[in-house]
Structure formats: structure tokens, C-alpha cells
Design goal:
The structure holds three protein chains of three kinds. Chain A is mainly alpha-helical. Chain A has 18 helices and eight strands. Chain A is flat. Chain B is α/β, with parallel strands linked by helices. Chain B has eleven helices and ten strands. In chain B, the strands form two sheets. Chain B has a six-stranded mixed β-sheet, sandwiched between helices. By secondary structure, chain C is an all-alpha fold. Chain C has a single domain (2-319), classed as Orthogonal Bundle (MetI-like fold), CATH 1.10.3720. In chain C, 67% of the residues lie in helices and 1% in strands. A two-stranded antiparallel ribbon of chain C has the order 1-2. Chain C is globular, with a radius of gyration of 24 Å. Classes of the chains: A mainly alpha, B alpha/beta, C mainly alpha. Chains in contact: A-B, A-C, B-C. The interface between A and C is large, with 104 and 103 residues.
Amino acid sequence: MKASPAMKFHRIFSEKTAETRSNLVKILTAGTSFIAFISVLVGCLTLAFNSIETYLIPFFYLLTISLAILFFSARWYHKTQWSILILAGVCLLSTIFVSSLPEYWVGLNIHGIIHRSFVSGLLMVVIAAPGLCYSIFYFMRATPRAFDISHFPLLLIPTVLALVGFTLIVVYIVSNGALHLNWSLLSTPFKSQYRIIETWQNGWPVFSNQEVKQVGMLNHVLGTFLLMGLTTLISLPIGVSVGVFVKQYAGAKLSVIINFSTTALRSISGIILLVTAMSVLKMPASGSVFYNFFHGYGYDINGTLQIGRSSFIIASVFISLLVIPLIARSTLEGLNSLPKEIYEGSLSVGASKEHTLLHIQLPWSLPNIITGLLLGCAEASGALTIIFLISGSGQYGVSPLNETTSLAYFIFECRYGRSFGDTLQNIMGSYQYTAALMLLIITLGLTTTALIIKRNLSKRYKGA
Amino acid sequence: MINTYSPLKQATITSIEKNRKPGGIEINGLDVYYGSNQILKGIDLVFPAGKVTAIIGPSGCGKTTLLRCLNRMSELVNGCKVKGQIRLDDEDILKMDPMLLRRRVGMVFQKPNPFPKSIRENILYGVKAIKIKCDHDMTVKSCLEKAALWDELKDRLHYNAFALSIGQQQRLCIARSLAVAPEVILLDEPASSLDPLSTMKLEASIMDMKGEYTQIIVTHNMGEALRVSDYVVFLFDGQLVEFGETKTIFNNPRRQETRDYITGKVY
Amino acid sequence: MIKIKSIFTIRTVFLILALIPVLALVLITINLVMGSSTAIGTLGLKLFKGVFAPSSEAPPVYPNSLAYGLLPALWGTFLVVSISILIAFPVSMAFAVLSNDFSIGWINTMIRGIMGFLSGIPPIIYAVMGSTFFLWFMWPKFEGKGLPLASLPPPNMLPSDSSCNLLGGIMLALFIIPFMTPILDDAIQNVPNTLKEASFALGANRWYTLMSVTIPYALSGIVNALILGILTAMGEAIIVAFAIGFGARTLPSPLFDLLQRTAPLTSTIAGLSAGGLTGSHETGPIGLSVASLMGLLLLLVAFALLGVSMYFQRKFKKGLPQ
């Protein structure tokens, strides 16, 4: 039976309608995704800046309308998705809520004052993000692959926000620091005159009032490098021994104990190491031989002996407690990466285990050890938590027996130091960014070198 | 948060099962590249519906690649380009949504890979993933029966799947892929990790599923191809050398390469 | 003979050097215990008061009127750590999932490279940023600029001129993210490909595979990363010191007030040890001993969490309950 003209017409008509309908739905969902995307952006900006808040309210209305349209487009596609309608309802409610808020929201048991933008920006991001996901899902015809792709924004939004935060940090420090970065600043030692208006507490200089004579960063820079060097000297043998011992010689129990201790040393707070350092520093009696040695001493222009808070050696000892686990872990990784065939090959020629250790295993793990060392140096230069109460300005010389100083301490002093009635923040507050920039350059340079070495390690052995 | 789209709108497993028939696959001019290497060159093939087809050939000739193209698992490798046409019952596979395709074309891998969950959860995984309504107990029972595991495991459904022997794990993987009611099942050297007794049980399952499912099996084992398959495809160096019924290929191969391979002559 | 001697020496050398960290840890613990004995002895249960006011302890101040309650500092630690973990953990998971399951090759390398690069930034930088730059973003929201004087809340409800708990939490979160992301990344990367392939072959999409196969398998690694993140957040002194200050005084009056400044344990210890960095009082022996006690608390919590993490890793190795 031939298809009657009426049936043909009906078929063509419904196909055309279906086609127009699907095109219409496509346009509508594309529009909704666009609006939702812009809303997310504006919401994030509102969280940062107050003034954008006025532009936010119309977006709330737009978003409600587009979510309602999305609900109907979804209905044409597929079964009714009530969650979109609920989302649209929530959006409408928050629009009404936000537009009825005064500009500053006072009272409300959260410490008094909140600007409306904080609330509205937060609400906007929270509502627009699922809206964006839904609209992309229906734009792509609601297949399982569309489900994956439409949930991408949920992953992207926190990631992008975090990356923006990090970029801001780096850019701000670089731009502010570079303003004052010049050779004279770096090469001038910091000189200040200590006035003896100090508070002593159990033989401990606690609050020193000083008069800044000359601003410079030289001693701090040299001090940072000295700290790195001393920490390397102390922590390298110990770290490598821990790694070697755990791999080669230790039984199960002993290796658990050593593993736990080394991980614990890294997980306990730096403040605990500081407290221990301070009690160690109180150990030698006031006049004894070791007192100067522990506390760091130097001679000023007049030749008088000035006792500081802590010498470099003691500070390095405590910083190396933090660095040892890094080196130990890297050594262990390196030793584990040696292929068993090479190790057995060495033994089968008649070499002793110790000989293999010194001549095959340790040289193989050398790049790993160097990586750990570089990371440890980066830690040492940035380790303020352990030394910030036991450092000084290093103006009497920078050598292992002098008082500890470091770039990180310079930054701390810029914020909290005092100079004879004025705060150091006012005198040299702008130099804290330069010091931060120098510190960033040192630590990031070390870390990047370590990472590059680590990446090239994997190309080492391409055996059978 | 969002229900995944199913083309069979309010389907249940029973309704899928009723409407399901084993699908035939037709390949036209297939070229597959990994980066700049061409792995498959101009393949034209038909896999008849409801029958078992074996793909044989030396190592590295592209058997596994061909198999993985059929359910678009080849796309998971970076740099893989597929050109040509593959049709499943007149629908172009390469234009479908891959996940919808994989519900219709299931796969059993070379090394058994059960999930670290209970046996019951393993079987119901596919069903729950695509959110199709079904009677869970009935599904588990029928799948395990088809894979000849029901009598052994009916009291142990809550056991961890890793506690089974390798042969049982492989049959569990077959049962798992049956749970979503596919039309085609791809088997990639399923018996290569198994001992002879488990292989026998596996082959018995494959024979039982003939007629209900289209099965495509890649194998190194000539005996297995002979015992189990209805049709044989011989691939060499990425090209289709010969295709025909099993009896014809094994008794009277037309091409010299096929004859050499079957009789075990070293290349 | 010579061979036996040299074996003995090399092994002993390694043994002695390797035991130094253990020795150091033991000595630190003993030092803290001995240091806190005075506090526990004199103050006893008064340590659980909610007021913390270090004062000069010269006589005639008797222990009864000393106020060294630990609760404000403990609450400060809890607040700051929970804010930072609540922010940092989802973001780190998003980074790890993004670089493993959801994207193209070059994005993975880029994310890993960026995180490795950022992990070298020392905490002092975050501290400086927290107390200057980020403050400029947050501050206009809470300072009530332009409001007439009459409608302002009473002075003790107004934010003070430096910073608040929320900001300390955010900076701490930024510090922890490059630390936690590589660990999480590793854990998710170690899920074997065959499991994921099996899931795809059954028609599941990427999100379902992630939720039901990848994450349960990598759970022990994820918990390990979480615990290490908590420990790092708890132990950070410089960031919270710059952002919040050096000594909690009382528990905040709406308890969860994020806009006040409740100093955590670490900066309170610093404040006590320095004898009042921002004040000018001297800390007496009881105050120093309270500092040791707080350090001991931090140490014990660190040990406990590490123990839990090691137990969890042993029990749920490779995603199989054993």
C-alpha cells in the first residue's frame, strides 16, 4: 500500500518540526551555558572586589530565567529533570534575598559587618556552577560522554581559582621586589646599633631595641647560604646512612622504628624544634666556654664582645633534623631503583656486599641523593619556623660561630622589628618584598633543578 | 546528580533481553594508525550475527587492535587514529557515543580483571553504572548460569572476587559482561592465562552462548579456533589474508600464507 | 681478618648515624615532657579554662590567679586547620583527578610541573602575602567603610586592623595545596589500568569509573595524603603568626567566628617562648612550661595521626581488605 500524501506530509512535517525543535533547543541551551559561564565569572570577581556587586543582581535574574528555559528544553529531550527546576527556584529565592539585603549586613553574630558582595558572590558561584554543568549536558544531547564533559567545570573552577591565587602571589612579589632590587642593597651589610634596652628573661635576650644605621641585606644573604652549607654538611651523612641502613642492614622491627622516626621528624611542627633549640641553648652556664659557642658571638667596631641568641651551628643542627628525612627518602628511592640484575652481577664476580654498596649502589643513587640535597637546601633557606626567635641581624660577621641570620629572618624583622621608637616596617618595610624575591629565586631555583634532575632520572636505565 | 541518557527510555533489563538479537558487524576499509605507524591496512570484513568468529595470526599483526576498535577501546591510547567504516547492524560505530556502544559490545580481557568487590557487586557493576532497572538477584543468577559458575558460587556471592581461582575469575568476567545484555561479545585471548581444565569450561561457555550472542575471539591456539569457532579470519601484518568457514580454512586454505601458518611453519 | 674488621666498621658507622634521628626524636620528647611537668603540677585542671593571659609571674602572683587555659589555643588550631583542609583537600583532589583521568597528555605534565614548582615556595612568602595583599581583597568586605558612626556595631565586634581566622585558613590552604597534590596524584596514578579498562568496557563513563573503581582503590593513599596535610597545617607557625597573631586570649564569643583572631597552638607557643613578642611582659617559668606542654600536645597528636596513617596503609594495601 503506497503511503498516502497525508501520511507523507505528516512524516515530513514531524521530521522538520523535530529538526527545528532540536536546533531551537541547541540555541537555547547554548545561550544558557553562556549566561551561566558569565555568571560564574562575575560571581568570582565579586568575591574579590566589592564594586562589581551592582552588576551582579541583573545576572541573578537572567540566570533564573535561563534555568527555567533550560528546564523546558530538557523536557523536550528526555524525561523531566526536576532538579533543574529546583535550581531555578533556589536562584529566584536568592535573587529576592540578595536584593533585599542592605549594603552592609550588620549584626548577625558573625563579628559584626559583612558586605553584601560576599554573600551574593558566594551564592552566585554556588548556583551558577551546577547550572553551567546542566546546560552543557543538554547542549551536548545528554549522552554519557556529555555527562563527563559537562562536569568538567566542577573540576576546573577550584583549579583555576587556586592557580589564580598562586599567580597573584608570584607576580605581586616579583613586581614589588624588583622595584628595589639593586646591587647596592644586596652588597651592603645591614648595620644597626644595638642599644642596651633589652629585656632579659632567664638569661635570654628577648626584646632588643635597636637603632638602624644602615640598611642592607648582605649579611642575610650570606647567612642563608651559610645555613644551607652547614645543613648539608650535617644532614648528608646522616640522611644517606638512614637510607642505606633501612635498605641493606635493618631487620623489620628496626626499619619500622627508623622509618617512623624520620617521618615523624618531618611531621612535627617546626615550633617544637624551636622550643627544644631554646632549651638546648639554655644549657651552658653563663660564663662557661660553651656559652659563646652556643649563642654565637661577634666583635663590633669597638672590639667589645657581643653575644647573640644562637650560633649558626646550633641552628643548622636543628634545621638538619628537618632535612634528614628528605635525603633519606631520596636515597631509599635511588637504592630501590637499582635493577636487581646489576646488583647480583656484582656479587657474582666475587665482590663483597660492602664493595658493591660503595662502588655500585651509591654511585647509582647519586642523582637521587643530589635531588634530595637540593630540596633540603631549599627547605633550609626557607626554614623560618625553627630560627625566627633565635636569629639576629648578623652584623658582626657571618661565620659558623656568629649569630644566625637569614633572608627569611629579614622579612620577619621587617614586619615585627623595632628601631628605637619606630617600627622597622616604616623604615624598611618595602624591602621585605625584595628579600622575599631573593628568597623565592633561591628556593625556586633549587627546587626546579631538583625536579629537572628527577625527570631525567627515568631515562637512565633502558635495559632488556 | 544527572541521570545518564539511555536511548531505551524506560528500559528494564528484561525488556532489553526480549528485544535483543545478536548483532552482525560489518567493516569497510578500516585503517588504524598509532601515531605514524599504520597497524591495520584496508580491512574489509563481515562478522556474521550469532556466530563465533576467530581471529588468528602471528604476534603483532594487529588482531588485538582490530578487536579493540570494535568497541572503541582503541581510543583510550593517545595518538590513535581510526579511519573507515564499521557498522553494527547498520549503525556506524564510529559516530555513536562510545559508552552507548560499549553497552552493546562487551569485552573480556586477556588477563582476568575482576573489581576488588564482592562477586555479586562485580556482576551488577555494569547494570548500576548505566542505571537500568533490573531484578538484581535474577540477573546475577542468570549471568552466573550462562558462565557455568552458578553451582560453584551460589553460596559465596558476597566473597571477594580475588578469592576465586584464575579460571573462575575469567568466567566471572564473562558473566559480568553478560549482565548488561550486549549483542556482541569480544574475547581477547581469554584462555591464555588458564590451565587446560579451566580452558575447557570456558570453551563450553562460549559454545553455549552461540546463537544468542555474536562472539569474536582472538586466539593463538589453533585447536581452540578449530573447536569453538564457526568462521575464521586470518590477519597478517595488518592486512586481511583470508576469511571463511572454519572447516574450509583448516582443511582447504586458499592462500599459501594461511596454509603455512596453520601448519606451524615458522616465518 | 681484615675483611671481618671492615665489615664490622662500615656497618657500625651506618648504624650509629642512622640511629641519630631516633635519638633526636626521643630527646625531643623527653625534653618536652620534662618541661611541661611544672605546668601540669602547678596548674593541673586549670589548664582547661577558656582564658589565656600570660602575665608576669613575679610574686605576689600565686598560681591561683594565673590564667593559662589551653582551650583558646586548641580551638584556634582546630578552626584554622579545618578551614584550610576544607579548602585545600577538594582543590588538590580536583588537580589530581584532572591530571590523571580527565585530560590530554600535555595538561598532566603541565599540572605536575606547576605543582612541583610551587611546592618550593617557603611558608614565609605565603605569610607576607596573607598579611598584605590578600588583606586588601578581604578587607573591604568586613570594615564597614562609609557607614555612619551610629550604625556601626560596638568596637569589640569590629574587625581589628590586621587579619582574621578566615584569612589565616586561606593562606594555609594555599600552602598545603602544592604539598598534597603530588601525593594524591601518585595515589591515583597507581590504580592499575586494567581495572579502569574493565570498567570502560562495561559502558561506564569516566565519572562513574572514578567514583566506584579508582577512588576506592586509592583510598589508603588518599587518607595518607589527608593526614599529612592535617599534620602540616597543624605545624605551621609563621603563616598563622603573620595572619592571626601570637596569643589567643579567650574563646571567640560566637564560637565559630571566622572574622576574629584566635591564635592556634603554634603561634601561642612562639609568643610564650619569646616572652611576648608583641607585648612587653616577661614569661615566667610556668609560662615556659605551658609552652612545652602545648608542644607536647602537638607532638602526641602528630604521633597518633602518623600511627593511624601507617595502620591504614598496612591494612588497606592495594585496595584489598586484608
